[in-house]
Amino acid sequence: MDSGTAYGRPQPSFDADLTQVGPGSPMGELLRRYWHPMGLAADASATPRRVRVLGEDLVLFRDAAGRPGLLYPRCAHRGTSLYYGRIEDRGIRCCYHGWLYDVTGHCLEQPCEPNGGERRGNVRQPWYPLEERFGLIFAYLGPPERKPALPRYDALEELDAGEFIDADDSSIGSGGPPIVPCNWLQHFENVMDPLHVPILHGSFSGPQFVAQMALMPAVSWETTGRGIRSVQIRKVEGGKTFRRITEAVLPTLRVVPSPRVGHFGRVESIGWVLPIDDTSFRIYVAGRVTEAGQLGRMRSKFNGKFWWELSAEEHRATPGDYEAQVGQGAITLHSEEHLRTSDKGVALLRRMFKAQLEVIAAGGDPVGVEADPTRALVRLEAGNYLDV
Questions:
Q1: CB of 274 within 8 A of CB of 172?
Q2: How many other C-beta atoms lie within 10 A of the C-beta of residue 374?
């Protein structure tokens, strides 16, 4: 009798503590201890914008005085969505009965009430604090008393001559469309999986980067004070060593130097993997550039075509990161995995997240959180280096 058929296999499951991001979930509460990008700075405008992040639906806007706001969408009066509101000098006005809220949720006017609402001070629309940096707008969705300083990064603050910072919202690094329909961790773990590069992006789908990246590297992984670091060593022509360092920085930063290796040196950009909810994410990127559109040219191509130019058959025959990660399912089934030595970086990352869940459960602050803005500069090691 044959054994090992699919019949009667155990019911598979995923690790909810690591994957689910809604309010009150373990990972959701951990992620809420950090700042996350809500969009490009220009997305906060005089037109209210729907935003979904960590399983919460919100409205992003900018009042006529230039102040950005992020509010819970259901008006505190009768529940009409502020997405249909009108932006004014002092805030956003609900379309239904005209209640006016400022960017921190204070109710300023109730036009249908005597004297503009004598008890309007008793109402406050739920809101979240925002800060703008690197061409992005960041929000802190966690407990107010634990709010850290918004981090700064040397790779984005120490510019070379002729460089400026540009931001991108097209999910560079995902290998697919702006919104990716699977769990955020399936992508973030990929940052610590460099050994998939010579297979998926090399021998299987054909060289999608440069020739050096198709070489099988010797890889080491290490836990740092901010996340997990991977060092990949490849021997190249002339007896030189191509040393590539990538970092997964908590909570969701992918610090990955360009796989096209246009030049050697420190990492050029940083991507924030933003969990929209349990089964979708997107990536916001900020990077040093010398000309407009340079970030967009970092996108992967498959046989000379961008992802959206491929036919259904080309997607099947030449898969990339998008296909490999979305192909794991909406949330991958961890109970069915068989990790090996090449998965050490993935295991380290999961272990670090689990440790941080324990830290906040015990009332502490997770790794990388700094309350003092003068000490919030993060120095990164990632980059492509050529050693003689």
A1: no
A2: 7
For residues 132-163, one letter each, b for 16 or more C-beta atoms within 10 angstroms of the residue's C-beta and e for the rest, the string is: ebbbbbbbbbbeeebebbbbebebbeeeeeee
Please choose, from the candidates 54, 326, 78, the residue with its C-alpha nearest in 3D space to the C-alpha of residue 70: 54
**Whether CATH 3.90.380 fits 148-387:** yes
The closest alpha carbon to 282, from 8, 14, 15, 54, belongs to: 54
CA angle 132, 137, 140 (to 5 degrees): 95
Q: Please answer whether residues 345 and 224 qualify as being in contact, where contact means their C-beta atoms are separated by less than 8 angstroms.
A: no
- Rounded CA-CA distance 365/370 in Å is 9
Q: What is the pLDDT of residues 287-327, one digit of tens each?
A: 999 998 889 888 877 777 889 999 999 999 999 999 999 99
Q: What is the pLDDT of residues 25-35, one digit of tens each?
A: 999 999 999 99
Average pLDDT over residues 186-201: 95
CB 57, CB 166: distance < 8 Å: no
Annotated domain spans of the chain: 41-131, 148-387
Query: pTM of this prediction?
Result: 0.95
Residue 365 CB neighbour total at 10 angstroms: 14
Residue 65 CA to residue 385 CA, distance in Å, equals 46
What pLDDT, on a 0 to 100 scale, did the predictor assign at position 207? 81
Distance CA 378, CA 247 (A): 12
The rounded Cα 155 to chain-centroid distance in angstroms is 17
Reported as a single tens digit per residue, the pLDDT across 47-92 is 999 999 999 999 999 999 999 999 999 999 999 999 999 999 999 9
Work out the angle at residue 248's Cα, subtended by the Cα atoms of residues 244 and 252, and round it to the nearest 5 degrees: 145
DSSP at 81: B
Q: 3-class DSSP state for residue 234?
A: strand
Strand partners, 40: 136
Task: Determine the CATH number of domain 41-131.
Answer: 2.102.10.10
**Is residue 384 exposed (0-12), middle (13-18) or buried (19+ Cβ within 10 Å)?**
buried
